[in-house]
User: Fold this.
Amino acid sequence: MFEWIIPKSKMILDYSYYTALILVIVIGSFRFQLFDKGIKIMYLCMVTGAINEILVYISKRFNFNTMPLYHVYCVVEFFIITVFFLNTVNFSRKRLYILLSAIVLPTLGYCNLVFLQPKTGLNSNMFILESMCVIAMSLYSLYTILADDFVTVVHNDPYFWFWVFFLILYSGTFFFWAYIVPISKNVKLMDIAQNIQVIINICVYVGIGSVFFFYPKMVKK
Assistant:
């Protein structure tokens, strides 16, 4: 049933994933001057992900443990998405919430690293927490966009698409990390789960890259 999961297909998925991420960065760099503040934060999130992937690749080449990178990356990504959320939805005390996020998220990451999951092990707790929070932020943001009477053509709203993509991505990420321990005991299931997650990432990156590319036309309508 799962014979299609072979090393060659995994290699193709990996190359497709890196290609999609590179295209997002390239397209975003060309459109960057046209972006508003919120879209620039979104682009920063993509750049952060690309930097992490480069560091992970280098670490693997030198046989270093990549888990510490994910401990740091999860907190940084979590914070950037939170800032993006606070700039998407109107909050009267936005600066206060950003400051609290800058304090609380690293603290949670540090406590998880010291007391629950060491730096050389999986960082599933923080990824699960991040996924739950991003799903909640996505749903709330989509609600505010759809309830906004001034947004008459929702598919021309870049923020609408970003939150749809976040909802899709982190719904998959939540289940991946929630079941990572039992799944990892079966090599075949682990390969399938990883490939599914990579496919979701590719689709999301293609979507985000498309929004970056069509951004000038979207904001003119």
In short: DSSP finds eight helices and no strands in the chain. The first helix runs from residue 7 to 31. The helical segments are 7-31, 37-61, 67-88, 94-116, 124-147, 158-178, 180-183, 187-220.
